[in-house]
Amino acid sequence: MSKDYIDVESKDTYRNTYNYKKPSILKRVLTVILVVVFGLSCGVLGGYTAVNFFVPKMVEEKLETLVNNGDTETGTYIPTVTVDPSGSSVAMVASVVSDTVVEIQTETITYASYFGQYVSSGAGSGVIISKDGYIVTNHHVISGATQITVRTKNGQEYPATLVGSDDRTDVAVIKIEGNDLPFATIGDSNTLVVGQEVVAIGNPLGELGGTVTNGIISALEREIEVEGQMMTLLQTNAAINPGNSGGGLFNMNGELVGVVNAKSSGEGIEGLGFAIPVNTAQKVVNDIIENGYVTGRVQLGISATSVNDLTSAYRYGVNRFGVYVNKVVVSNSPLKAGDLIVQIDDLMISSINDITDALYDKKVGDQVQVYVVRDRREQVVTVTLTEYKPQN
Fold first, then answer.
1. Is 139 a catalytic residue?
2. Does the active-site annotation cover 165?
């Protein structure tokens, strides 16, 4: 009887019937290798197919579902990433905005009892904010200057005129004559966040115009005293040096978000720079350009002198330290030259800065109670505050 199957119990029968020969070791090794290679090829092909066909298809279908269904509850999204071909976004920002930052050189005539009259020089930075040549800088950069010169990035120099200045915010506006000048795009400092990258451009040491440094926003509302005024400033770790004052602080969109105005210095202090938020500066700039000064600021209507040492007391012929009225500059004021101001409302006065603090939140037309010593007697007078208009 013939068999349609192999009798597993009789190996010899199988070998004899089909002339079976045991394969050599080499053939068996080659067979194993071929099987492994084939398996790996299938795995790679399968993976490639999955990554390049099935996964993109799944993502595409998921995105289409999210878009079609308006899925906003989960907040799921895939952000679009723009690759910077230059490899450096700081370089791109610098290339766009550097032309808007200028060097400022000043000359000031100073009088001294021993040396007579002499000219001192200063340096700072500024940012062009209009194509016809308006430039924002710091009050302390141009304060007292009798001559202001602006140098643009291409080396061209312009004489500048002072439009107006505000010591409280340390903001000043100067102007050069020009047409179609490059100017900065104004950003929104209220949208800044701690850790956000920024770029500072200025004229450190008054000799290195166009210097670019970068860092982050380290803090948003730092209470810092600058030139005797308390200010709320942005803090950055971008390198800031003397001469950077008035320069620009830009976000990574190339928008002006701050006007550099201060640096903390001293042994062991690094990476502490400060800038005026552009939203603060812009309000002052607009007022200065439109009116020549910041409107709404109040005054007592006097000029005053602070006497805080024996030499000054001897010079002015007084026997008590404090703040004295040396001139009344408004009509119908109850104050008189020679008055010693000791208190305004509830605030004791020992310096001119104290007067500024006492009037800080006041409005034009408000009344304050001023305690003075006049003819060796203390008196209280009521002063109606008027608007401060700087004398040109």
1. no
2. no
Query: 98, 140, 166, 339: which one is catalytic?
Result: 140
Q: Is the pLDDT of residue 164 over 90?
A: yes
Q: Which of 166, 170, 287, 354 is catalytic?
A: 170
Between CA 316 and CA 322 the distance in angstroms is 12
pLDDT recorded at residue 182:
94
Asked about 245 being catalytic, the answer comes back as yes
Which residues 6+ apart lie within 8 Å of 15 measured at CB? none
Q: What is the mean pLDDT of residues 66-74?
A: 36
- pLDDT of residue 58 exceeding 50, the answer is no
Residue of 166, 167, 245, 339 marked active site: 245
Contact 181, 132 (CB under 8 A): yes
pLDDT tens by residue, 88-147: 589 999 999 999 999 999 988 877 666 667 788 899 999 999 999 999 999 999 998 999
Q: What's the whole-model pTM score?
A: 0.68
Helix (H), strand (E), coil (C) string for the chain: CCCCCCCCCCHHHHHHHHCCCCCCHHHHHHHHHHHHHHHHHHHHHHHHHHHHHHHHHHHHHHHHHHHHHCCCCCCCCCCCCCCCCCCCHHHHHHHHHHHHEEEEEEEEEEEECCCEEEEEEEEEEEEECCCCCEEEECHHHHCCCCEEEEECCCCCEEEEEEEEEECCCCEEEEECCCCCCCCCEECCHHHCCCCCEEEEEECHHHCCCCEEEEEEEEEEEEEEEECCEEEEEEEECCCCCCCCCCCEEEECCCEEEEEEEEECCCCCCCCCEEEEEHHHHHHHHHHHHHHCCCCCCEECCEEEEEECCHHHHHHHCCCCCEEEEEEECCCCCCCCCCCEEEEECCEECCCHHHHHHHCCCCCCCCEEEEEEEECCEEEEEEEECEECCCCC
Is there a contact between 308 and 318 (Cβ–Cβ < 8 Å)?
no
Q: What's the pLDDT score for residue 35?
A: 47
For residue range 148-163, list pLDDT tens digits in order. Answer: 999 999 999 999 999 9
